[in-house]
From TrEMBL:
Residues 120-194 form the Armadillo repeat-containing domain. PANTHER family: ARM REPEAT SUPERFAMILY PROTEIN (PTHR23315:SF65), U BOX DOMAIN-CONTAINING (PTHR23315). This is Armadillo repeat-containing domain-containing protein. InterPro entries: ARM-like, ARM-rpt_dom, ARM-type_fold, Armadillo. Gene3D superfamilies: Leucine-rich Repeat Variant. The lineage of its organism: Eukaryota, Viridiplantae, Streptophyta, Embryophyta, Tracheophyta. It comes from the Eukaryota. Keywords: Repeat, Ubl conjugation pathway. It comes from Populus deltoides.
Amino acid sequence: MNSSSSSSSSSSSSHTHYSTSSSDTDTPPSSSAAVRRALRLIQSEDLSLKIEAAKDIRRLTKTSQRCRRQLADAVKPLVCMLRVGDDDSVELSESALLALLNLAVKDEKNKISIVEAGALEPIISFLKSQNSILRECATASLLTLSASSINKQVISATGAIPLLVDILRNGNTQAKVDAVMALSNLSTHSNNLDIILKTNPIPSIVSRTALTSEEGGILAVVEVLENGSLQSREHAVGALLTLCQSDRFKYREPILREGVIPGLLELTVQGTPKSQSKAHALLCLLRDAPYPRSELQPDTLENIVCNIISQIDGDEQSGKAKKMLAEMVQVSMEQSLKQLQQRALFVTSFLVAFVR
């Protein structure tokens, strides 16, 4: 159930067990017939037929945006299936959750209609379930639904945030990764960020197992570092720094592979004082040589970054990092000039007051 986010709000998740890409391919006649059949079966009173329809909907919406639109009317009956399901009817609940998840991927209207249909109440109950399958599916569902800006505050109001943090502490590896990304989505709403910080999720996020044993774990933190609020970016760089400090030779390459350098460069100039310090420390650990350089090669930020860039594979990442370095130097010069102007203004004001 690998997941990834594509923007600051992780606008859609891509779960390999659930859904993959979202191509806008035309629906062939055979698919149109299958869509009509699925819509008919999902209305049946027979639970076995409902499960069959949910599985068909999941399959049809896996790669087709058009099918997601055509099957939008299935949202309400699928949500009703969630309400009927419980720990004793895992197949019913799981098939409905996975169908809803695929319907929601890269479809803002479906994301909103799923929440409006009342899906959050059963999804939240599944987060508390003793069944690991239902917990994992529910976490993945919240990840996708939380990508909608309209849903963020509604999800928070259900009490989902403490439960997601609990998944970080006690869930399986993929559920932990999805929970990190869902919290990242929710953190873009200011009220939600306060709630998240009060739950102190960072020790759980820093778990080396959660971040590195599943593809997308480190990437999720890098995306928070790049796109989160100032406070969440500070926590994210701290998490990566802790990870690299624990075993530099093991975690240096996985961190670099996720393209962390541009975000770190930006933090060294525009982050909070703590973020700047942590970003600089992490850059030092990420460079090729783990020990301080000689006086002939001073330990300046530019030298550290240039060394790292020389080790990065791929022209695109290297070019982006070089561009960010140039911008960083420019911003640094502008800030230094601003500070000089402020000092000059202070001295001038002081002298005028003294003369008087």
